[in-house]
Design goal:
This protein has 326 residues and is an alpha+beta fold. Helix content is 28%, strand content 20%.
Length: 326
C-alpha cells in the first residue's frame, strides 16, 4: 500500500503514546450529573488531551465519531484565520517549526496539518468500536493527503465513502470581473470504519410527496444463457431476463389478476389505478409481490413499486447549507 512521507512524520507517528493521561475535572457551576446525562459530556480543552483522557473508559466503545478539523486553506483572516500547531512534541527545532502560524506563505503547511492530525486520528481509532464509523468534514485543500494517511491508520479496506455536501456560495467574487478559480459550492464528508466487515443499515431518504410506481425494462445486458427463456413469445438472443422463469411467470399472472379485478383493459389502465391496487393488495396480504407486462413498444417490463422514500447516495446536494439561501 502506498504511504505518505511528510516532514515530522517519524517524530509524530507515535506521539499519541507519549501524551499523558489527564483526568476530566468537573465544573461545579455547570451542575454536571452523570446519572441524568445518559453518559453525555461536553469537554472544554485541548482535543488531543481530551481524547487521551477518554481512552481508559471508552476505548473500543464509540460507534459514531464526527470531527471538523481545520481545512488548512492557507488564508490568514476571517473564519479561515491561520492556526498554530502547538502539541508538546520533543525536539527544540520541531517546536520552533510547529509554533509558527500556518498560513498561505508557509510551504510546509500540509506537513504541519498532517502532524497535527496523525496523533488525533490514532486515538480516535482506538476509541472507535468494531461496529463504528468516523465522519470527517474536509474540502479539497487536504483531501488527497487525508485519504492517504487514513489508509495508513485505519486501513484502505475500511474506506467507505466520500460524501458531497452542498455549501453556501460566497458572493465576494461578484465584485470582480475575473477570478483565479471558481467559487466553492460543495465540500466533503469522508467516511471510514474500524472493521471492514461492518455493514451500514440501508439508508433511505423520506420523500415529501412520495414517488409513484414505474416500469423498468425486464431485459438486461449481463450475458447469462440460463436466464434466457420464453415470455410473451420472446426469447432473448443475448443478455438475460432479470428474474428467474418461475418468478416472471407468477408476475405475469399477478398483472392479469389485477386487470380482471379492476375490470379494465391493459390499454385503459392508468398508473394511479395500478399504484392504488398494488398498495391495497400489499396491505391485505402483508407482503409485496411482482407485476410483469408487455409494454406498448412490445418489450417485457416489470413494476417498480411506489415508495415514500428513495435510496440515498453519496450526493447530498438536497441539504440546504446553514446560513445560506442558495
Amino acid at each position: 500500500m502506498p504511504t505518505l512521507q511528510f516532514k515530522g512524520k517519524n517524530i509524530i507517528w507515535n506521539h499519541h503514546l507519549a501524551v499523558p493521561f489527564h483526568t476530566l475535572d468537573e465544573v461545579p457551576e455547570l451542575h454536571y450529573n452523570p446519572e441524568k446525562a445518559n453518559g453525555n459530556m461536553i469537554i472544554e480543552g485541548d482535543n488531543l488531551l481530551a481524547l487521551k483522557a477518554l481512552l481508559p473508559q471508552f476505548a473500543g466503545k464509540i460507534k459514531c465519531i464526527y470531527i471538523d478539523p481545520p481545512y488548512n486553506t492557507g488564508n490568514d483572516s476571517g473564519e479561515n484565520k491561520g492556526w498554530i500547531y502547538n502539541d508538546n512534541v520533543n525536539g527544540p527545532l520541531l517546536k520552533d517549526w510547529f509554533n509558527a502560524e500556518v498560513n498561505r506563505d508557509d510551504l510546509t503547511r500540509h506537513d504541519k496539518w498532517l502532524c497535527m492530525m496523525v496523533p488525533r486520528l490514532k486515538l480516535l481509532r482506538e476509541l472507535l468500536s468494531d461496529d463504528g464509523a468516523i465522519f470527517v468534514s474536509l474540502d479539497d485543500n487536504e483531501l488527497h493527503n487525508f485519504r492517504t494517511i487514513m489508509n495508513e491508520i485505519f486501513g484502505e479496506e475500511n474506506f467507505r465513502n466520500i460524501v458531497i455536501i452542498r455549501r453556501g456560495i460566497k458572493s465576494v467574487q461578484a465584485q470582480f470581473e475575473t477570478v483565479d478559480k471558481l467559487n466553492y459550492g460543495f465540500e466533503y464528508l469522508v467516511i471510514y470504519t474500524r472493521n471492514e466487515k461492518f455493514r451500514f443499515k440501508k439508508f433511505e431518504i423520506e420523500l415529501e410527496n412520495g414517488k409513484e410506481g414505474s416500469w423498468n425494462n425486464h431485459w438486461r445486458g449481463t450475458d447469462r444463457p440460463t436466464m434466457r427463456y420464453e415470455i410473451f413469445g420472446i426469447i432473448p438472443e443475448t443478455g438475460q431476463w432479470r428474474w428467474s422463469k418461475e418468478r416472471s411467470i407468477v408476475a405475469i399472472e399477478n398483472y392479469k389478476e389485477m386487470l380482471e379485478e379492476l375490470n379494465i383493459s391493459d390499454e385503459e389502465i392508468t398508473q394511479e389505478q395500478i399504484d392504488t391496487w398494488y398498495k391495497n393488495k400489499c396491505e391485505e396480504s402483508g407482503e409485496e409481490f411482482d407485476l410483469l407486462r408487455l409494454s406498448k413498444n412490445g418489450k417485457p417490463e416489470h413494476f417498480i413499486a411506489p415508495s415514500e422514500s428513495k435510496l440515498a447516495s453519496n450526493l447530498w446536494t438536497d441539504l440546504k447549507p446553514n446560513g445560506s439561501s442558495q
